[in-house]
Amino acid sequence: MSSVADVSSALYRITLQPSGRQFDCTPGETVLDGALRHGVVLPHQCKTGACLSCRAQWLAGDLRPDADGEDSASADPQRSVLLCRARPLGDVTLACRELDAALPVTRLPVRVGAMEPVAADVMVLRLTPPAGQALAFRPGQYVDVLLARGVRRSYSLANAPQPDGTLELHIRHRPGGLFTGQVFGRLKPRDVLRLEGPFGTVDVQAPHIAGRPLLLLATGTGLAPVKALIEACIAGVTRRPVTLYWGGRVPADLYLHALCLQWAQQHPWFRYEPVLSRAPAHWHGRRGHVQQAVCEDFSDLSDHVAYACGSPVMVAGARALLVSQGLADAAFYADAFTAAAA
Ligand code: FES
Asked: d(Cα 51, Cα 272) in Å, to the nearest integer?
């Protein structure tokens, strides 16, 4: 059933198909920001143009497909556009999926409960919210850490929701990084951070695909949201085959390797394939890249769902390879790290 948001003061009216739902965008606003402002939840994750989660089909109307200035006159209607980049220049009709209502975005202070260096350049932070103020989120979502002067940094939540509200972040140290320098420098247990969230949508548990075999591809700290999804599977009552391909260059990059092996031992529906691109001679696991390993293992992915999290290069490569192996494009979900994550 379609619904109509308040369009009485609309400057540009956006119509979504097939629902017919409408909302307005202000000049200069992206379609995604306009939708979220009206409580219309569309698939998205990175909001930077890297993960392709927000792709939609542009059916009619005038818009600038890319926020960096691609000329609308040169663009073809009927083409695929990214809703986090596209800015309407008039009334526009788009075809895209819509999701259930979003959880409320809130700001909350959290206390640093534990800091665990799990690799030379990766810190696991466990954060405790004030009593009675647990953040409501879905596995795969992320939060922004709010820093001084309006600066913010986005991090995936690395655990499924916990009864005590504990939040886990995996922070990779980036030389010169504003927040990561703080984490690997002066931050200490009992310090307070300010968070805002949750953001993003990863609906691999959506009812229409919830029973399909799930492929999880991660590189580096891309494991964080993947870990949250696996924990949700462990806590859930329904079982689906889940295979994790976790990639790094050398063994030390797989900073929770023992935990993944433990999951594989404890849960017959879970399989773990570590993959190294610069494996030492003694490595007995897979070599190469995670997306190649998936395609070596599955000749037909037409009944699978995949979620990839890591570098934009990995995510783009995985999408191309897995779709060429039969995966439905709409069954590929992703999050991609960008430089702003420092
Ligand atoms: S949310 Fe638009 S590309 Fe990631």
From this structure: 24
